[in-house]
Amino acid sequence: MNIRIIPAPPARTLAHDTITAEQVSHLVDSFYERVRSDEQLAPLFLQHMSLDWPEHLGRMKAFWRSVLLKTGEYKGKPVPAHTKMQNVGTEDFAHWLDLFGMTVKEVFVPAAQPIVIQAAERIATSLWLAMKADPFAKPPIWPKVGRGDSK
Ligand code: HEM
């Protein structure tokens, strides 16, 4: 008798096992509170957002749960959402990451913080490259994440 062994699908490892959906919700609420009172980023969001804030926050929570808790629930398209924003530059991304990193440090345990920050940096780099639309563009090294000194 032939027995076929079917390998188990790879386990979907969580970004860090202390991260909860409540923390993700808190991260998104606190981060966008910061964004909304930030003189550099608030005008960009006001100009480019097609949803109202509660809908945007709901979408961002689904996005971050998908990234950090592997829920697979986010079905949006972040690249076209950002490539349409012609007036968003490298300094804006660095500042976004800085505010995000500050918020991460308030929400997650120390062991989880670099994991969340590195995920944001990787996605920021992909979005930045897509916005440049230049195959030879050299992505920035994000130096100021979470230090609160990006401007
Ligand atoms: C200066 C930097 C950034 C600005 C100004 C910005 C601004 C925005 C705006 C205005 C929207 C709403 C677009 C719309 O309603 O059509 C949006 C959506 C979104 N952003 Fe950003 N963003 C920035 C960086 C980032 C980064 C670094 C990430 C991820 C790490 C990110 C993830 C997302 C996602 C997932 C969406 C939802 C896209 C969708 O499904 O509609 N953004 N962003």
List the main descriptive attributes of the protein structure presented here.
single chain; 151 residues; mainly alpha; globular; binds protoporphyrin IX containing FE
Give a verbal description of the structure.
By secondary structure, the protein is mainly α. Among the domains are: 45-76; 78-134, no CATH class. The chain is built from 6 helices and no strands. Helix 1 (21-36) crosses helix 5. The termini are far apart. The relative contact order is 0.16.
Brief overview:
The protein has 151 residues and is mainly alpha-helical. The chain contains 6 helices and no strands. The radius of gyration is 17 Å and the shape is globular.
Record the SSE blueprint:
Blueprint: H1 21-36, H2 42-48, H3 53-69, H4 78-83, H5 90-107, H6 113-132
The structure holds protoporphyrin IX containing FE.
Protoporphyrin IX containing FE binds at residues 41, 44-45, 48-51, 59, 63, 76-78, 81-82, 88, 92-93, 96, 120, 123-124, 127.
Number of E-type strands: 0
Content of β-strand? under 5%
Instruction: List the secondary-structure elements in sequence, H or E.
Output: HHHHHH
What is the number of helices?
Answer: 6
Structural class of the secondary structure composition? Answer: mainly alpha
* Rg, Cα atoms, Å: 17 Å
The helicity comes to 55-70%
Our measurement of the CA-to-CA distance between the termini, rounded to an integer number of angstroms, reads 70 Å
Which whole number gives the mean pLDDT? Answer: 91
- Most strands sheet: none
